[in-house]
Input
Amino acid sequence: MKNTWKGILGCFLMAALLCGCGKGEDEKEKEVALITDGGTVDTASLDKEAWDGIARYCKEEKLTYGNYVPDEKNTEGFEKTIREAAENGAKVIVCAGDEFSEAVGSMQSEYKKVKFLLLDGVPVDEDGKEYIRKNTHAVLFSEQQAGFLAGYAAVTEGYTNLGYLGGEESEQNIQYGAGFIQGADYAAKEKGMSAGQVTIRYKYEGSDELNPGVMADANEWYRGGCQVIFACGQPMQTAVQKSAETLGKAVIGSNYNQSSISDSVVISAIKRVQEIAYQQVGAAVDGGFKGGEKESLGTGHDGVGLTMAYTTMTQFTQESYNAIYSQMAEGKIKVSGKEISTNPSQAGIELVTVQAEQ
Output
């Protein structure tokens, strides 16, 4: 299908990477725009995943597109950059991450004719209350299902001494951790293991910022026998990967493929941001845009998964993955996103011992 505004601008396809758009004729009139969180789109990140999906769609449909890098990584900086993209002719503006919630919440009202796609976040008003206009679609991802797959893969692979390190005790980190525990327990039951054979050391660091305490915890856990740590949040992953590289241990990544960042990563539990960005930009351009809605995508919509193409696991095979994934997608396995680390038995965890730490 062809959208009515696809040919209006008559601009040639922009295949080059654009940063800080808005100056010069070659930097104007980008029909689809990605606002980054302050970084570029050439290194592993949610922004890169979103960018790759946008670029693929726009190249296929011969649309102009570009990315804008804010000068300041805060709501004011995001708003300024969104305004720049809109003034440069953007018909669709994409943001990835809940740090954009306030900026999209305000800009969706200022630019009612622009379609906003917020991935992994929900727009809010000035009081912090969810506020989604009809020109905005918010997409969340089922972290608990991604975490479940990570825990299931770890125990199926043969790991019995596991760790989970999250940043702030946020909804996202709680869901990742809850799923991880449930997945490990499910795999232990499938393998006919006994209670206590699988142990998970579990901790929220209290901050999503990188600090020496994260690496210190990872070092202590690894030296204490921990075989693999599921690290959630990029600062957590950076510190844990450094520790694992030094000590010859393993890491399970989160959010996006971490294998290119560190050889210590044996697999990653990912949000399929690239594919969802491709699909949703298409919906915004050609119809089917779910304006005014918020949705959460899990295995049933192929919204989360594991990086089987990049794993170094040998016991957890593609066949193993396909089997557990299809059961989840069909709704045969339910995964809770509620906090369960402090009282796992109450949540139905029977075989895994969880050591929650402060």
Observations:
- The radius of gyration is 21 Å.
- Residues 171-190 form the longest helix (20 residues).
- The chain has two domains: 25-141, 143-271+304-357.
